[in-house]
Amino acid sequence: MADIAYQTIAEPRPIPLGEILPWAVFVGLICLMTLYFVGAEQGATAVFAGTGVHEFVHDARHLLGFPCH
Q1: In a domain, 27, yes or no
Q2: Tally of domains in the chain
Q3: How far apart are CA 28 and CA 41, in angstroms?
Q4: Distance (Å, rounded) from C-alpha 16 to C-alpha 12?
Q5: Phi, psi of 46 (to 5 degrees)
Q6: Which helix (H) or strand (E) holds 41?
Q7: Tens digit of pLDDT per residue, the chain (69 long)?
Q8: What pLDDT score does 22 carry?
Q9: Domain assignment of residue 69, yes or no
Q10: Are 50 and 39 in contact (CB under 8 A)?
Q11: Of 17, 69, 18, 62, nearest in space to 42 by CA
Q12: Distance between CA atoms of residues 17 and 29, nearest Å
């Protein structure tokens, strides 16, 4: 008989919440900042003076359905 080598199958382990939570908060903040700059910057409120941010995200506003003019 030939020697048979058995391959062990790795089982997935759950990731602890303490390792996921900082990344989830970071991604959430990035998403909120992106939503603000695309949807509200240079509108009724503005963090930066001028129209640079508005012109940079202008096409994204229309793509996502935000009115801007």
Answers
A1: yes
A2: 1
A3: 18
A4: 12
A5: -150, 130
A6: none
A7: 567 777 888 888 888 989 999 999 999 999 998 887 777 766 556 666 767 777 777 777 787 777 766
A8: 94
A9: no
A10: no
A11: 69
A12: 18
CB neighbourhood size of 37 (10 A): 18
* The pTM of the whole model exceeds 0.85: no
Residue 31: per-residue pLDDT: 92
At residue 25's C-alpha, the angle toward residues 59 and 42, to 5°, is 30
Ramachandran angles phi, psi of 21, nearest 5°: -55, -45
Instruction: Retrieve residue 58's tokens.
Output: 């202008």
- Give me the residues paired with residue 41 across strands: 45
Rounded CA gap, 50 and 27, in Å?
Answer: 28
Q: 25 lies in a domain?
A: yes
CA 43, 48, 49, 54 torsion: positive or negative? Answer: negative
